[in-house]
Write a structure and sequence with these properties.
There is one protein chain. The protein is mainly alpha-helical and about 200 residues long. Among the domains are: about 60 residues; about 45 residues, no CATH class. About 70% of the residues lie in helices and about 10% in strands. It has five helices and three strands, in the order ααααβββα. A three-stranded antiparallel sheet has the order 1-2-3. The longest helix has about 50 residues.
Length: about 200
Amino acid sequence: MLLEDPPSTLISHTISNFNIQPDKLAVSRISESLSTLNQARDLRLREAETSLKKLSRTLSTLSSQHNELVSSHSSSAHASEISRLDTQKFRIAKGVSDLEMETERLQSQLQELRGRLEELEIQGVDGAEIKEGGAVDDEVLLRLKVYRSLGIEIERDGDKWGRVVVRNDRKGDVHVVNVDNRKFSRFWYANYFWEHL
């Protein structure tokens, strides 16, 4: 009878009939997989914590820089500086416009004076055309007359023209210039005279 067999024999036959070895191997594999997963999860957690600490430090640095910039920036000072620069810009633009108008006026005056000079060079001192015989003397006299009409008087210093008096009746100015071609060019003197007319 089955119950008459010793229990050890029954247990041995029961164990051999169930064959639990594959289940034990499966449990062992599952246990290893769980251990690997736990290790991977711990590693990812450590990486996430490290990244979070780094981001926290960066945020703290940027926040302190932002606070410094906000505290150092004054909106009223900025507005006053913008207003000052705008005023300066408009003042400069007005100055440039005035200078352009003055330049145009002086250019038109220069053209008129050149036209008058050409007319006077064509005519003689008495209003007649210059004849070839006394052309050089008449030309010098004519130029002196034109210069005098502009407010420029030239005085002789020996055999040279050495001193020039420039009068500006509008401003009430008188400038006396000793002409020395060794110091300055004729171009410089011409510009100087035009500036003070």
